[in-house]
Amino acid sequence: MMSSSTTTAPHDEPKRIVFDDPHGAVGNLQEAEVTRVRTLRGAWRWTLIVATAATILLCINQQFSLRFFVGYTQLNTEYFYLLIALMLPFTFLIFPGAERAPLDRVPWYDLVLFVVTFAAALMLMVNVRKAAEAGWEFGGAPNTVIAAGLVMWLMLMEALRRTGGWSLLLSVLPFTVYPLFAEARWLGPFRGTQSTLEQATAYHVLSGESLLGIPIQAFADTVIGFLVFGTALMMTGAGKFFINLAFALCGTFRGGAAKVCIFASGLLGMMSGSIISNVLTAGTMTIPVMKKSGFRASYAAAIEACASTGAVLAPPVMGATAFVIAQFLNVSYADVAVAAIIPAVLYYVGLFMQVDAYAARHKLKGIPRAELPRLMDTIKDGWYYVFVIALLIVMLLYFKRESHAPFYATALLLVLNQFFSKDTRWTFATIGKFLEVNGRTFVELVGILAGCGLLIGAFSMTGVVSSLANDLLHIAGDNAFLLLGMCALTSLILGLGLTTTACYIFLAILVAPALEKLGLNRMAVHMFIFYWGMLSSITPPVAIASFAAAGIAGSPAMKTGWESMWVGSIIYFLPFFFVLNPALVLQGPSPYLAGLGLMGLAAFGTLFICGGIQGYQPFVGDLRGTGSLQWPIRVLLVIGGFVVATPGGGIMPLSQMQVTLLGLGILLPTILVAFLLVRRQPVMPDGLRVP
What we know:
Layout: E1 3-7, E2 16-20, H1 26-32, H2 42-64, H3 76-87, H4 91-94, H5 108-134, H6 143-164, H7 166-177, H8 197-206, H9 214-234, H10 238-250, H11 256-272, H12 275-293, H13 297-309, H14 320-329, H15 333-339, H16 341-361, H17 375-382, H18 385-398, H19 405-420, H20 428-462, H21 465-476, H22 480-497, H23 500-510, H24 512-517, H25 522-534, H26 544-553, H27 557-567, H28 570-580, H29 591-614, E3 616-617, E4 621-622, H30 630-645, H31 656-679
Antiparallel strand pairs: 1-2, 3-4
């Protein structure tokens, strides 16, 4: 369990803010989830630990070709089914089937589902080699295999309900059974090739396009390794190091507590790839300090929620969806991580500007240096993390070994931790906790990813994707802006009911082909869908990150959600920027030079967007000093900033020069008027201007 502590210095030296978490923040995450999941104890806990260890060893064997199975070469499909057999059955033990289901014991019906799921997965694994040789996925599979497939189909739907809720099940289930009546006239543009129940079942469970398709392939090839690395990093004291480093570097700045929150959550998120764990790790320390510094509770929680949302946007370790994107585009994960760099930088720059403007408007000062951790002491305690992160980045970006990189980085981390850290040195109990935490994460992801794989299989079976793309283009009249708007709205609505990964998969199948047919860059299109799909983490009524932060801050949940939208508003603009000019995701000719130039323009425009949103413009002052013109000036600042930040050329009717000049034409007179009005206000004896 995390705690913030203070070290008492002798005599009159003030207490220092120090984050002390020797065992990482993972325990706090589990305690926060205890109302939603069942904590396994005794033999079942050890069964999960053993199954998790086997899963990790299987992944290492497959990625490094170690040939654990002497004299036997394992097919990829057999490997996938082994992972499913090891992890999917635990869905029914960890996730209760109903709100009133007992949490202190495993009921008999969940044990039945556990055994049935394991048996079905084992049956399919044993037969999947024969299926590949005989082409059973297209027909002719034995009745026993079809029966096992039907059981697996049903278990996957129940696993989806338990891990993702009714909204996810009701979004996926109709499409998984849709091939059974795909020729019905009332389906309109969704009409396609119809299949019998036996054909659909065989295709779903035996082909490489459905259950064993892109989502499970991404999990088996890369996600496991990065989850292992992220958990190991948190359980070796990275949370303590990154948060104390953030306090030491940013604490004294104006609104320093909030800037510490952004910096610390950004650092943690880059390593963990999890929004909620990021909130619960950094938020327990940063939110109370922000409140103490003068930030109101809902605003402090909103800052933490927005900063933690960057966990799935910032490389090198992004969320599971980033690995699915790589599989969809058939590129390396390193390519996706590189494409995410500039958007992530712009997002965090926007958050910093928002916080700075808010702190200036409300005259919030930084934390006294005497109360902050000493920079050199912090570096001394965690210097070895630099080598671990450097190894990870080099292997990802230079050697392009994304499946190997997290395992090498984890091995180096554990060796350095055992040698250089007394507080976080691992014991056998730590290893058990490490495997248990990873097991819970694996189980939840397999439940969601395997079920969503059937969504891909359904559209692959019916062959409607291409015709649907043409229908969307016809509706939009080949207007890229209208289609992007339709896509953004659809992504936002779906994201309110689905997980980010499920939402992305849904739209990557249905909408992405239409956007690509307009000539838009593929990477930019998929990043656009990804960004809009994950906005639900800070957008009410779901706003899971905002609600988690509100629980820590003691603020109203919905109010925190609306504050989060306000604070993180830059994220609603960013996807349009990089889809208009793919140089912002480092695509196209001379991407690095063009990308840096566009990033500079976008950051410059963001300065005015944030000034207008918060009501304080740097180099001008508090816009309340403009009197009755305050809101017109703020609106013009947001519009002008948005125009300056918008890339020109491409599908835009104006060139980059014309767009920039138009934006400056709005901003310059607005700033001049605001400057003159603010300076004309009388000055009080303490140097402050009367608003």
